[in-house]
Specification:
mainly alpha; 9 helices
């Protein structure tokens, strides 16, 4: 009787291994997402200094030691939350300024999408400005802080890029990005603290007026 060549026999082991790996990855991602959701609630209530891994694990329904498989510190969790927030911000800004639109429309759309993201997600504003941790990037490594800042600049760059297309010189466009950011944050803080009521103004309309003036400055520079 001739012995069969093992290499000639088809095997289903590889597909099964891939399926197992895919299921394991999906489970790990679900657990990670669950931990981040629990951590967000703890940070909101206690701040970064008052939060601890034990409480985050309890909220997530895990023992404290199991979290270390996903995050080695509460600061790492905080960084992951902020990174996820900035990715959603960039997606919102991209959706508000599709490439098919004119530069004027993209400038308006990108800037307003930036404002709307934080206006409708005030906890992301707290997270983005480290308000859970005392107005400073506490516990974040310089490399991580630089990477997160770069993603924030990416969101603002769509506005600045459209202004450049309209004719605004490079230095002026960079300054305009910074000025819009400062204006936007000021309006958001006034809105979230309800201080805007003392002026009897609509913060969204004030934002639109500022954006329109920026577009006009860009077009005037081109002329």
């Amino acid at each position: 009787m001739t012995q069969a060549d093992p290499q000639a026999i088809p095997s289903s082991a590889a597909p099964r291994d891939k399926q197992r790996h895919a299921r394991r990855a999906a489970v790990n991602e679900a657990k990670r997402t669950h931990i981040l959701a629990a951590a967000r609630a703890v940070f909101q209530e206690r701040g970064l200094e008052g939060a601890n891994l034990r409480e985050i694990a309890r909220r997530a329904g895990y023992v404290a030691g199991s979290i270390y498989s996903y995050f080695d510190s509460k600061e790492a969790i905080y960084g992951a939350l902020l990174a996820e927030s900035l990715e959603r911000l960039n997606a919102a800004v991209a959706a508000g300024a599709p490439e098919s639109r004119s530069a004027r429309e993209r400038a308006r759309g990108a800037a307003r999408a930036f404002y709307d993201f934080y206006a409708t997600n005030p906890r992301d504003l707290d997270l983005g400005f480290y308000l859970f941790g005392g107005m400073k990037p506490q516990g974040l490594t310089p490399d991580l802080n630089a990477a997160l800042n770069a993603r924030l600049r990416d969101a603002l760059a769509r506005f600045g890029g459209a202004l450049r297309e309209l004719g605004m010189p490079e230095p002026a466009a960079r300054s305009e990005e910074a000025a819009f950011f400062a204006h936007c944050v000021g309006l958001l803080l006034l809105e979230n603290t309800r201080r805007i009521r003392m002026f009897q103004e609509d913060p969204g309309k004030l934002c639109d007026a500022y954006i329109e003036r920026a577009v006009e400055r860009a077009e005037a520079g081109a002329a």
